[in-house]
Amino acid sequence: MTAGARPALEGYSFSREVPVREGDLDDHGRLLQSRARAHLEAAVADFLRARGFRWPTGLHLVLTEATLPHGDVGARNVSVRNAVTVTVAVRPAAIGYSALQFQGAICGPGGGGPLEEARLVYAVVDRASGRNVPIPACLVGALLRPA
Q1: What is the phi-psi region of residue 77: left when phi exceeds 0, alpha when psi lies from -120 to 50, beta otherwise?
Q2: Bridge-partner residues for 43, per DSSP?
Q3: Residue 85: in which H helix or E strand, if any?
Q4: Rounded to the nearest 5°, which phi and psi values hold at 97?
Q5: What tens digit of pLDDT does each residue of 4-31 get?
Q6: Antiparallel, parallel or unpaired: β 99-107 and 116-126
Q7: Per-residue DSSP letter, 136
Q8: What is the pLDDT of residues 113-146, one digit of tens each?
Q9: Cβ-based neighbour number of residue 127 at 10 Å
Q10: 73 in helix, strand or coil?
Q11: Which residues contact 122 (CB under 8 A, 6 or more apart)?
Q12: Among 7, 18, 71, 140, which residue has the least CB neighbours within 10 Å?
């Protein structure tokens, strides 16, 4: 876990603060699902960079599924309208043959538990053929390396 992470993020191996902008919110002050997904995807990329991972030439990670169970973040009647930042946290959840899964969380201001938790599933794809390929050993090593 990164320095300054809240106790509510225990169990997450990477977190970062993300600014909240007016365009990120709906009329009720909830973080839009599209923005939450973008913040979670950026956190996964930052997590991999922080672990020193560099993509082998010709491969890339494709998001195949993003599940945010409650729609827009804060849909459980928790507004982030007056928040300056939210905390986005991720951790590897499962590693398969050619796909991997991350668990993500978004926490609002003032601590407490996550406003939303998400599941992101990625496939490793060969750029030339567009086909799934086995997860490279260097990626598995980065995912399993202690923080």
Answers
A1: left
A2: none
A3: strand 85-95
A4: -75, -50
A5: 333 336 678 888 888 888 888 888 777 8
A6: antiparallel
A7: P
A8: 787 889 999 999 999 999 999 999 999 988 888 7
A9: 9
A10: strand
A11: 44, 61, 62, 63, 64, 99, 100, 101, 102
A12: 7
